[in-house]
Amino acid sequence: MSQETAALKADFDRDGVVVIRDFVGPETVRKICTRAEKATEGDSREDMFSNITKGLERRDGYFGELLNDGPQVPILEQLLGKKPEPTTASFFTKSVNQQEVHPHSDALEGVVTWIALDETNERNGCLQFLKGSHKRQEEFRHLRAHEPTDLAGHPDLFEAAMSPGDIVIFRPTTVHWSGPNLDGSPRRGFNCFYVGAPSNWKRGRKKDWEAAKKAKLALTAK
Ligand SMILES: O=C(O)CCC(=O)C(=O)O
Predict the structure, then answer these.
(1) Cα(7) to centroid of ligand 1, in Å?
(2) Which domains, ranges and CATH numbers included, belong to the chain?
(3) CB 108 within 8 A of CB 203
(4) CA distance 97 to 182
(5) Would you call 207 exposed, middle or buried from its count of C-beta atoms within 10 A (0-12, 13-18, 19+)?
(6) CA–CA distance, 211 with 200 (Å, rounded to integer)
(7) I need a surface site. Which of 17, 109, 164, 192 has the fewest CB within 10 A?
(8) pLDDT-based confidence at 99, cuts 50/70/90?
(9) CA torsion angle for 153, 155, 161, 167 (degrees, to 10)?
């Protein structure tokens, strides 16, 4: 393992989250955007997470290739010390003045990646993390993506402002969220989830996500 990778792994083990700048070039960013927009064209949902489209790999084989063999895979293997187990690829948008995802964790095992496709910052709802929270699972296990919890003043807060092509890699147990898009600028991200089969998901978490979707919690009601 190179010195650079060893340092990245040390950060990842300690914080449960790392950012690599300029991880993919503008051409790849453009291709992901174009194909994800096309793959989701005409979708109409009104649930709380209507801005999140999982299963991109079933809509366009390009996303299956990225999920299984994208440039992140060798790095994930180094960070985890084993091959990541692909679950799904997703497109996350946030172009209206809401669409918050509240603090939560995703699954017990594995790793998650999120490549920025636009400039993403505090104004348009970038990802936020609690560094080290992957080691404090009991303390945060009550958190739910569809229920507000204010962690804005938390001392371990890490605001992942990113530019197109940057990647954030995190443990699914690292608490994360994204605030509302306040300025309406595009804030798109391409996410890959490596937590194995859906049945490996932390019991309850997946159910919460689905319950919130089914309940069609209209964001405008908040
Ligand atoms: O992109 C977002 O706004 C939220 C991402 C997220 O919660 C996740 O990847 O689990």
Answers:
(1) 25
(2) 3-198 (2.60.120.620)
(3) no
(4) 5
(5) exposed
(6) 18
(7) 109
(8) confident
(9) -140
d(CA 165, CA 214) in angstroms, rounded, equals: 33
CA pair distance 179, 85, nearest whole angstrom: 29
Q: How far is the CA of 178 from the centre of ligand 1 (A)?
A: 7
Q: How far is CA 37 from CA 67, 78, 119, 201, in A?
A: 17, 31, 17, 27
Question: Which two structure tokens, joined as six digits, stand for 190?
Answer: 């391409």
Nearest to 126 by CA among 212, 186, 210, 192: 186
Contacts of 123 (CB under 8 A, 6+ apart): 181, 182, 183, 185
CB 151 within 8 A of CB 116: no
Q: Is 176 in the pocket of ligand 1 (CB under 6 A)?
A: yes
> How many angstroms does the Cα of residue 63 sit away from the middle of ligand 1?
17
49 Cβ inside 6 Å of ligand 1:
no
**Weakest mean pLDDT among 11-15, 64-68, 134-138:** 134-138
Taking the C-alpha atoms of residue 26 and residue 31, their distance in angstroms, rounded to an integer, is 9
Answer whether 15's CB lies under 8 Å from 132's CB.
Answer: yes
Establish whether residue 189 lines the binding site of ligand 1, counting it when its CB lies within 6 angstroms of any ligand atom: yes
Q: Between residues 158 and 109, which one has the greater pLDDT?
A: 158
Q: Model's pTM, two decimal places?
A: 0.89
DSSP state of 202: P
